[in-house]
Amino acid sequence: MSGRAWALGLGAAVSAALAIAAGEGWIDPSLLFVFKPLTTVLVIAHAWLRDAGPPVLRHWVVTGLVLSLGGDVALLWPKEGFVPGLVSFLVAHLSYLVAFTRAAPFASRRWPFVAYALVAGGILSLLWAGVPTALRVPVVAYVVCLATMAAQAAVVWRASQGEPDARRGAVLALGGLLFVSSDALLATNKFAWALPLSSLWILMTYWAAQWCIASWLRPRAAGVGTSTSSV
So what's the pLDDT on residue 54? Predict the structure, then answer.
């Protein structure tokens, strides 16, 4: 990792820690309005600077991150901003999906889709009773997009086996898994029961997921012609 990447990673980690502390009330809660968006901005910068691969991949990943930033801002108001935030993140997952399908054909490995369908179905069944009727359709649509994104991330990982990009493919698959974990925690906290230290677990897994997705993009130092991605 370059010095610039280390600096961005350290900055994002410090900003995330302050956002989590504000979310938990350990420091002034109003600081969440500063450090939550700032952390995602630093992840966007990390993705933007990893530009050695096909430009279309960076375009769609950065688009997904910018949409996620919009969702982060909306969810600073948990009640009023929930639906706008849900829509922002749904479109973000679709943007990620476009990028991932440039690296491997959609659903070219079936087992990740089967696995994530089971996980998504299990989470929905556990939380369904607590989801308000008016939110059930958008929540289902969101879960489908999220699970599809994570499954395709795993497809990219499996397609990269034996290639120079295999390690970054594994990081991408981890990002998809962490995103599902983060949203499962968020949904449990919102629709079922209050989780202890909810901001810690939700935001920690969320930003780890976004950092992994951004880190899938090939850095300049990797050289040309080593990516499994095709356009």
Answer: 87
CB 149 within 8 A of CB 92: no
Cα separation, 76 vs 163, whole angstroms = 41
User: Positive or negative, the Cα torsion across 74, 41, 31, 190?
Assistant: positive
Residue 6: both structure tokens together: 């280390």
- Residue ranges with strand state E in 108-210: none
pLDDT in tens, 110-129: 999 999 999 999 999 999 99
**What number of helices (H) and strands (E) belong to the chain?**
8, 0
Q: Please tell me whether the overall predicted TM-score, pTM, comes out greater than 0.90 for this model.
A: yes
Residue 225: is its pLDDT beyond 80? no
Extents of the domains making up the chain: 3-222
Integer Cα distance of 223 and 187 in angstroms: 41
**Mean of the per-residue pLDDT values of the chain:** 94
Burial degree of 1 (CB within 10 A; 0-12, 13-18, 19+): exposed
Instruction: Give the CA distances from residue 134 to residues 88, 131, 167, 205, in Å, rounded to whole numbers and listed in that order.
Output: 18, 8, 42, 28
In this structure, the number of other CB atoms found within 10 A of the CB of residue 181 comes to 18
Cα gap 91→67, rounded to integer Å: 7
Q: 34 and 16 in contact (C-beta within 8 Å)?
A: no
As a whole number of angstroms, the distance between CA 200 and CA 189 comes to 12
